[in-house]
Amino acid sequence: MTTLMDSESKPTALIVHENRITASRLRSIMSQRGWESEICDDGDTAVDEYVRIKPDMVFMGLNLPTMDGHVAALEIRESDPQARVIFVVSKSRLAKANDAAYSAGAVTVLVTPLTRGDVDQKWVMMNGPIPDAPGLEDLDELYPDIEEEEQPPLPPIPMIADSAETNAPPPNELPPLPEPPVPKRKRGKALILAIITMSILAGLAATFYLGLVEI
């Protein structure tokens, strides 16, 4: 039974590979050497796992989901310049793995299918000096950050035109409103009645004085 103290004293390997059989085989080989291993099959998760557990060695495949192994290795090297990365690929991907190893500063490349003899043969190199990672200079081009699209600037707020420019009087100098017209009195009918009455009276007076009417 492995105690917590024994687990903490053992070196740790992070195995990041798309092939579960290869990952399990690596875990078995490293276990025989007294190492603890963590396995994941996602490039993006691998970067987070490296930061979390700080492993002594990273075995990295190339054909990983979300982030390929080359970029994941560069991300790890960026977070820790002393990260020890070993690429693990099939023979058909060896040329690509060698280019990625140079770019990310990997210590070596292992070819599948793996045997313990393959690891034993390269063990010294796997624990040797860590090369520089020249690909870090091109990391932004390989995996650019998604930037938010810039929104178009809002149109300027229209300025209120000055009263002198618009020839309009200022608020305090507006002309007074015209007074409503006074309704005219309806005197037409009264005037006609007065004229008729006066005419009748004048006629009666004239008749009286001329003696045409007997009183």
Describe, in plain words, how this protein is organized in 3D.
The protein is of the alpha/beta class and 215 residues long. It has a domain at 10-142: Rossmann fold, CATH 3.40.50.2300. It has helices spanning 4-9, 20-32, 43-53, 69-79, 94-104, 116-121, 123-126, 139-142, 163-166, 188-210; strands at residues 12-16, 36-40, 57-60, 85-90, 108-112. A 5-stranded parallel β-sheet has the order 2-1-3-4-5, sandwiched between helices. Helix 3 (43-53) packs parallel to helix 4 and helix 4 (69-79) runs parallel beside helix 5. The longest helix is centred in the last third of the chain and has 23 residues, at 188-210. The protein is rod-shaped.
Descriptors:
single chain; 215 residues; alpha/beta; 10 helices; 43% helix; rod-shaped; disordered N terminus
The largest beta-sheet arranges its strands as: 2-1-3-4-5
Number of helical stretches of at least 4 residues: 10
What is the CATH topology descriptor of the domain at 10-142? Rossmann fold
Supply Rg: 52 Å
Give the terminus-to-terminus CA distance. Answer: 159 Å
Give helix % range. Answer: 40-55%
Shape: rod-shaped
The structural class is alpha/beta
**Low-pLDDT residue intervals, each spanning 5 or more residues:** 1-7
- The CATH homologous superfamily of the domain at 10-142 is named Response regulator
Total count of strands: 5
N to C succession of SSEs: HEHEHEHEHEHHHHH
Q: Can you tell me the CATH class of the domain at 10-142?
A: Alpha Beta
Q: State the CATH architecture of the domain at 10-142.
A: 3-Layer(aba) Sandwich
Q: Largest sheet at a glance?
A: 5 strands, parallel
Bin the strand percentage.
5-15%
Averaged pLDDT: 80
